[in-house]
Amino acid sequence: MNQTQPYLQIALDSTDLSTALNDVHHVADAVDVIEVGTVLAFSEGMHALKTLRQHYPQHILVCDMKLLDAGETLAEMAFASGANWVTVGAAAHIETVRSAQRIAQQFNGEIQIELFGHWTIEDAKLWVESGVTQAIYHRSRDAQAAGVGWGEHDLLLMEQLSEVGLELSITGGIVPEDIHLFKNIRAKSFIAGRALANHDGNTIHDGKTIAREFRKQINHYW
Amino acid sequence: MNQTQPYLQIALDSTDLSTALNDVHHVADAVDVIEVGTVLAFSEGMHALKTLRQHYPQHILVCDMKLLDAGETLAEMAFASGANWVTVGAAAHIETVRSAQRIAQQFNGEIQIELFGHWTIEDAKLWVESGVTQAIYHRSRDAQAAGVGWGEHDLLLMEQLSEVGLELSITGGIVPEDIHLFKNIRAKSFIAGRALANHDGNTIHDGKTIAREFRKQINHYW
């Protein structure tokens, strides 16, 4: 895939597929990547992935499994159901990463390492040696709720990961005004969930307008 | 629950519910705990959990989500679908652990921390402070396949976790002959998957006989 600018990605994290289909319907034209979030995947199973693949054959489709074990079985299930990218938790044993990566290659797909827990740059080098090219830098939803913000520490780590050779997808309550923070990062994708849906809890807004604001910022900095 | 001996737990890790129902049917009388494995949960969604709850109203039911984020939403989904215990990955942010634990208390359920990645005894103390009483010591399936066995290092860590106050469920290619290794551990449950089903890849055997052998060993050492 020839990519000159970071992608825009919608994460679908509702507990039911009909809400997810409605959320993505409004902004599908404005996003490059559609993610079946962990919540939706656990709620509806691979049926959610298959249905989204049918509805959106041209989009990059991500299955956010954050898998930690059974790399071969889980990755095969997701890729066979239509995923292009599958996420693996950073805490997974390196053999699990390798198993998932082997399956990804068979399907011409990609593995993304989702950065949770006490991972190190040495781990990152092992992932790259295993053939992995992507990681997801994630400000935890629960950490956000507790008031933890983007900081110098995050950006430094992202730069180090870029240097090791990983492209980064960035997520965690990201808004268009944050985009400039990441201009020195090898950004693969910016992931937003509720901001791109037409609702955010009780607030009704136009996800398409937000998508355009994201795109404007991306165009400005890349 | 008044527990004097470790439980025996069957992990259902098939990709389809009908295989899982068949696997558990043969040994349900011989096990205390039924686990919807990550593979089955991602494949069939919460429908798998609800179906097993209907079929087995008296068993302890585990949903092995290994959740790393969205602790409240995911835990609520699993407990509301019939789970008694829900697993959280050790790499989860402590706020995620706390969120999941709050939900567990509302449902009179329990959280189990599944030990993957570079966790420390300091982390374990934080989990206990959050109200968590259980952890799962896990020899990774992919690590097993690569020939990594139970060792002194595992047992030492398990003793340290016991001392911190965590009861441990132990899993990862466990066979009845391994049970004696864990006699000094606060063992909550021994988890087996394919050994308790009536097949293990191409080998056909009687899961009920294996369950009896596990029980005999448990009775001998506790």
Nutshell version of this structure?
The structure is a homodimer of 222-residue chains. By secondary structure, the first copy, chain A, is of the alpha/beta class.
Write up what this structure looks like.
Chains A, B: Keywords: Carbohydrate metabolism, Lyase. The structure is a homodimer of 222-residue chains. With 222 residues, chain A is α/β, with parallel strands linked by helices. Chain A is 41% helix and 22% strand. An eight-stranded parallel β-barrel of chain A has the order 1-2-3-4-5-6-7-8, surrounded by seven helices. Chain A has a two-stranded antiparallel sheet with strand order 9-10. In chain A, helix 6 links the parallel strand 5 and strand 6. Chain A is globular, with a radius of gyration of 16 Å. The mean pLDDT of chain A is 92. At the A-B interface, helix 2, helix 3, strand 3, helix 4 and helix 5 of A face helix 2, helix 3, strand 3, helix 4 and helix 5 of B.
Any idea how many domains of chain A?
Answer: 1
Kindly identify the CATH topology of chain A.
Answer: TIM Barrel
Which class do the helix and strand fractions of chain A yield? alpha/beta
- Strand arrangement, major sheet of chain A: 1-2-3-4-5-6-7-8
Number of helices of chain A: 9
Give a short account of the largest sheet of chain A: 8 strands, parallel, barrel
Mean pLDDT over the full residue set of chain A: 92
